[in-house]
Amino acid sequence: xKQVTTGARLSLKGVGHRFGETRVVNAIxxxxxxxxFVTLLGPSGCGKSTLLRILAGLLKQSDxxxxxxxxxxxxxxxxxxxxxxxxxxxxxxxxxxxQANVAYGLQAQRLGDRQxxxxxxxxxxxxxxxxxxxxxxxxxxxxxxxxxxxxxxxxAVNPRILLLDEPLGALDKNLxxxxxxxxxxxxxxLNITTIMxxxxxxEALSMSDRVAVLNAGKLEQFDTxxxxxxxxxxxxxxxFVGTANLLExxxxxxxxxxxxxxxxxGALTLSDPKPCAQPGPVVLAIRPEQWVMVxxxxxxxxxVATVQLVMPLGPALVIDLLLQDGTSIKxxxxxxxxxxxxxxxxxxxxxxxxAQPAVFASA
Length: 363
Fold this sequence. Notes:
This protein is an alpha+beta fold. It folds into 2 domains: 10-235, P-loop containing nucleotide triphosphate hydrolases (Rossmann fold, 3-Layer(aba) Sandwich); 243-361, CATH 2.40.50.140. The protein has 9 helices and 20 strands. The strands form 4 sheets. It has a 6-stranded mixed β-sheet with strand order 6-7-8-3-9-10, sandwiched between helices. The protein has a 5-stranded antiparallel β-sheet with strand order 13-12-11-14-20. Strands 15-19-16-17-18 form a 5-stranded antiparallel β-sheet, with no helix packed on it. The mean pLDDT is 90.
């Protein structure tokens, strides 16, 4: 059987869902391009797993449409939709060999005769680099190998769309990185439209073409990982995706320059405040790497802070500080550039040159 996977276009049009009187998914609109890797990212209870079940055909939405290649697939089963699902627990049959597990979906859907199925299984095991493990049982495999068997079984039936439900949650950190690379390699090689659910921000940012950030059933932002990190659309996105220091301030405009005045300390200059450029009370979302320590000569344009804790994290150094009003601030820098800091030291913080912290209207 020839493996001919091509990306399908996936459209969500006003998709919503209620459990009783509780609305868990609220009017989600998404247009996902053929062959795109999209991650549904959010905290527990945000609606991402419910949305994945709706996409899979395991749950019928209360409102809206799910379309694949412009066809409304509401009411169709996963097989009728051409959707393949990989679950967090892999769902392998323990009494079957690797080879038999991969062949199961092909046999159940009668996708070819015995010889064609054997050829497809052989090709899929080669694709996930498990040919030599064909005769083994799941209990004889590592977690990463079991994950690859689950992927091979799902991809063997040539789905139009691949759904991944927290696929790396059961793996340790080193294995997760290897599997991130492996899943992305397979996805690109097969050009299959892929939707992954995770609460892990690093996974979402490193693997995805675009990320849909969900909060309390609503879509907060749908964009590239770089844009979501650099230009978050809301304070929730800024604090959930990565780390952000939130500071209340007043935004002023002088000629063509913008200046923010925090509650304590000196003024901070901004060249391009987004998403809010309206003078008035605002909240600044400043990433730890956007801070820089400066000398007393720049005190008028800096904030005074006291060092609380210095933590080396691999190649980086994370410093916890307190502003004069008791606000906690985190600063990060490459360890190679670190200066000697001790608890209780007083330093001046300003924005690193070129830094563009997000600015939000104060509620």
